[in-house]
Amino acid sequence: MPNARFILKEPNAKTETLVYMVYDYQYKRFKYSTGEKIAPQFWNKKNHRAKETRKFPQYPEFNSRLDVLENGINTAFRKLLNDGIQPTNPILKKAFLEEVDGNVLQPDKTTLIKFIEGYIEECEQLKSKSTVKAYKTSLRHLKGFAQANNKSLDFDSITLEFYNQFTGYLTHQCNLSLNTIGKHIKILKIFLNEATDRGINLNLTFKKRKFKASKEESENIYLTVEELKKMESIDFSASPRLEKVRDLFLVGCYTGLRFSDFTQIKPENINYSKSILQIRTQKTGQRVTIPLHPTVKLILKKYNNELPKAYVNQLMNRYLKEVASISGLKQMVQTTITKGGRVQKNSCPKFELVTTHTARRSFATNLYLADVPSISIMKITGHKTERSFMQYIKISQEQNADKLLNHPFFN
Questions:
Q1: 230 in helix, strand or coil?
Q2: CATH assignment of 225-410, given 1.10.443.10, 3.90.920.10, 3.30.70.120, 1.20.120.10?
Q3: CA atoms of 188 and 42, how far apart (whole Å)
Q4: pTM as predicted
Q5: Furthest-apart CA atoms within the chain: distance in Å
Q6: Mean pLDDT calculated for residue range 188-209
């Protein structure tokens, strides 16, 4: 049965916060901003209503208005079914607003930019700093596009013509790479999907096939087991700065964790009796269990199970290139990238391409080459689909052929 419930926009706020109505029906979710506000201290999470307390004397009228909304959405849904109309969020919202017309507080109309700004504020408490930073960058590009073209952007502005103009702006005026442009389109789709789920956006052009997040195969590198052993064998004691960076990087290479996770490992995450590491990842909130590699055990022992505090990612990457250079990663690597609408081919020493994310890619690729089943690796990396996982596997055609040579089919 469909279910209506009310939730707070910011349940931990110290001041009044908006109340949303969430309506789950037929495996879909309709979210509506009621326009009502209440301090979380007066909210009953169990009953989804205001607490019946003298400290909030308005509770009878407040709860009555929420009852009107709940009855209105239930009636609208039932009438649509009775009329043989298949409900969707846009159809349901229209029927709901007609049902409660004149009986509820109507929230102010939200523009696209205003919605995105509010959504990013919500995400600052829920998502990682890197995700919020990416969201803010996408918003900045949207505002830049609007200003450059003397346009005001709203939900109705998101057309295929907008898509072509916006990607052209990012390509030629911002000189961004194809993958970076694809990332910003992907983030824009996240904003629009959220607004659609909440019943704010009714324009579904962004779901069309041509409104796509373009992507090209990137030539990211990974470090082989031999290269990792060489890096591990070098004495960096004369430079504590580089030694710390090397050690943290190796932990990443042998755990498959992201930078935000392998730099947060604590003694309580280690179970020596079972020789495993257990941690909840920051980006996805998933709890992962990883066998302790001998190198990781040595590094943990070296620091008495308290890994040193990491530098910020940007500084870590700079020092990591020094570590990789000293470790002999100087073979030339050719890279190809589409930037500013042009294909650019460059060659550079391998050490210049090493970043903290190379650790995660190296972990996945080395385990794959060692014939560890993909599903077992994905349990650690947290990839939900094999397609997304395979993007991390960086092996050449020759390596793939060598791997197949040992398969029974070829013997």
A1: helix
A2: 1.10.443.10
A3: 35
A4: 0.60
A5: 81
A6: 89
